[in-house]
Amino acid sequence: MSNPCLPECGVARFLTLLNGPWATLIVRELLKAPHRFTELREALPGISPHTLTSRLRQFERHGIVTRTAYAEIPPRVEYELTPLGEGLRDVLEAMGTWAMAVPDPDAAVTA
Amino acid sequence: MSNPCLPECGVARFLTLLNGPWATLIVRELLKAPHRFTELREALPGISPHTLTSRLRQFERHGIVTRTAYAEIPPRVEYELTPLGEGLRDVLEAMGTWAMAVPDPDAAVTA
DNA sequence: CCGGATCCTACAAGATACTG
DNA sequence: CAGTATCTTGTAGGATCCGG
Lengths: 111, 111
Prior knowledge:
The structure is a homodimer.
Chain A: H1 10-17, H2 21-32, E1 35-36, H3 37-43, H4 49-61, E2 65-70, E3 76-81, H5 83-86, H6 88-100
Antiparallel strand pairs in A: 1-3, 2-3
The first copy, chain A, binds a DNA duplex through α2 and α4.
């Protein structure tokens, strides 16, 4: 895309960090509580392990989530939002609030 | 993706309506003021007319923007947010506010 | 249980050229 | 000016198999 991110354009940065349809939904789950890998899979019907890993890794790199592996049998891994990630709560709430006011995504044509 | 959109999940609906990297940026420009087609192109360096038209049409269908064509010479077309689209201001502001608090998208690794 | 590796699909987006 | 048409590309995501 090569958008130079204008001075005041924090929006572009947000989009870079939460790109793709799943990213925001994953954050949404983690806002409720820390989750294990499998728990996230169950909370996000249809997501593939590949995608989930991919998004989670990206979040780690950006300091949005922490990954804690417990060397137990069976293995256990917890994903938790960092304070930075917690800050996304306001954004997600704003999204949800707005979307609730939308008549209907598909029926909007008839409006 | 086929995500069934859980009961409380307005977030998923938001993501459906503002999908793709450019969608949100276009809304961001229109939040400042109504824009003509070419004005949007200039405000969004790198966007192709194809993509711009595509996103704009989708916004129209969803009732987020209105398209007003003036039968003049030269032709003039104005894109303006509907009240529904205006409601996105809070969401975009939340995004910007959060992103500003992020150390740096790329340097976050070193944090 | 967690998740990396590989290959493939779907869709947003880019490039370019052309029209009312 | 404001698009449209066609073709290609880039990347998120899906499917499947397998290793720690």
